[in-house]
Amino acid sequence: MANLCNRREFMRSAGFSLTGLFIASALSCVKSKSNNPNIVLIYADDLGYGDVGCYGAKKIPTPNIDRLAGQGIRFTNAHASSATCTPSRYSMLTGEYAWRQEGTGIARGNAPAIIKPGRQTLPLMLQNAGYTTGVVGKWHLGLGPEGGADWNGEITSAPEDIGFDYSFLIPATGDRVPCVYIESRRVVGLDPSDPIKVSFDEPILEDPTGKDHPELLKVHPSHGHDMTIINGISRIGYMSGGKAARWVDEDMADTITAKAVQFVENNQDKPFFLYFATHDIHVPRVPHQRFAGKSGFGARGDAILQFDWCVGQVLETLDRLKLADNTLVIFASDNGPVVDDGYKDQSVELLQDHKPAGPLRGGKYSAFDAGTRIPFIVRWPGHVSPGESDAPVSQIDLFASLAKLTGQSMPENAGPDSMDQLNTLLGETKEGREYVIEHSLNGTLSIIKDGWKYIEPHKGAKMDKNTNIELGNDPNPQLYNLSKDIGEKNNLAPENPDKVKELSALLEKIKNA
Ligand code: NG6
Ligand code: CA
């Protein structure tokens, strides 16, 4: 019945069917509010602007993502709110820039919930709009009350407390303990006689570490990542117990994709919101043997193949269940690309001419554009005309824009930085946001407006030695004309003091808002 509520389908059914059916479908629309489309947000991890075919990658095939782009709008100037995971996700789900709040940097694996119960969130708004809401995959926004989650009991201050009806989680990241899944507040497959302990301070040395036992490793760290070994891979943080519950990295994409597909199947008759946040293509990159060694570009290339497969599974499910026409699919990444993010996985050696950031400068962590400018695709057949948009877009606006889409007014104090950009997202205008704010690892803020980008002065390191990424810091102001210089090569600040003044003043105003 959901499909009948799509306007076109509805008209067709009205024209061809009996009056009874017409009335039944009309009533059903009122009752379930199902003229709101389903919403699927596919959120990649560390996928760069140049990593997929439809954004210019030539040799790593991504047919499913390319198909999505062909059927939707491919945005060329869309941004995550930050250049790392936790603040990006915080901003997207709350509609508040993470840099306004302490404690929103890259979260430890045992961090307490960063978005506290009681907050207005994007999923809560959709729940109020009648959606069944689910999150599957990477969380990395902390779990549990102050002091952290009870890994051996029921996890409170979980996604269920901020608007999700269902959750199946990688609690933090693939490279951080605890390396177990959590489904609906409980660790999956936990044997109570083998309780989980997690520490990010004092070592727990019940299990071997990568530092002391490199001979046990199947992937070796290049920097950090030398603590507890799980599944032959040493991680960030210490963990003991929970042996039966530990994940197998090679199966992770299959496991979470199956859960995402199941969520769609279970909720096909009502409006649903699925936030599918993949582990790929974050480290450790240990794809299934179907993909391992298949790209010719090392583990990072293989992870892109695997990620594209995950996307394909979700799209096929929508097709199979005849939901595609009534589902708004949004595809994005949480931050830009990194090649060596802590493991020797051949991604550097086999990178060849692949350009993870495409024409952009910098990468994950950076104030340069590759930090936050990401692939961003919106598909809604019959409502969104396929094409391309260079409108300035920020993920901070998903909250207010989806509220508009679903007929919800933003509650007071909700999403203070989120603006309704629905018309831009649906391709009705290419105007986009008046300005876009970027936020780097070390907190440098930048602002893009009218094709110009201003990076505020920062005394931080210019280069991240571990990842070999230019962080974009400079003690002097930087100004780039992105419309002519997308690679941020020519700093025009010295000869354009007025522009610098205008943009720095606007940035200050937004900071103090
Ligand atoms: C860094 C990790 C990196 C990655 C990142 C978070 C080290 C040396 N580096 O601190 O490997 O885990 O945090 O990535 O530990 S994110 O995409 O989740 O933000
Ligand atoms: Ca990330």
Description:
It is a single chain. It is built from ten helices and 24 strands. The protein has 513 residues and is an alpha/beta fold. The strands form seven sheets. A ten-stranded mixed beta sheet has the order 7-6-5-4-13-1-14-16-2-17, sandwiched between helices. β22 and β23 form a beta hairpin.
Can you give me a brief rundown of this structure?
The protein has 513 residues and is an alpha/beta fold. It is 22% helix and 17% strand.
Distance between the termini: 45 Å
Multimeric state? single chain
Q: Can you give the helix content as a percent range? A: 10-25%
Strand content: 15-25%
Gross morphology = globular
Give the helix/strand layout.
Layout: H1 7-16, H2 19-32, E1 38-44, H3 63-71, E2 73-75, E3 78-79, H4 85-94, H5 122-128, E4 132-138, E5 166-170, E6 182-183, E7 186-187, E8 197-199, E9 220-221, E10 229-230, E11 233-234, E12 238-240, H6 252-266, E13 272-277, H7 298-320, E14 327-333, E15 343-344, E16 376-379, E17 387-389, E18 393-394, H8 398-405, H9 422-425, E19 436-439, E20 445-449, E21 452-455, E22 463-464, E23 469-470, E24 478-481, H10 497-511
Parallel strand pairs: 1-13, 1-14, 2-17, 3-18, 4-5, 4-13
Antiparallel strand pairs: 2-16, 5-6, 6-7, 8-12, 9-15, 10-11, 14-16, 19-20, 20-21, 21-24, 22-23
Helix pairs in contact: 3-7, 6-7
Bound molecules: 2-acetamido-2-deoxy-6-O-sulfo-beta-D-galactopyranose (NG6) and calcium ion (CA).
2-acetamido-2-deoxy-6-O-sulfo-beta-D-galactopyranose is lined by residues 45-46, 84-85, 106, 140, 173, 175, 223-225, 236, 282-283, 335, 341-342, 466.
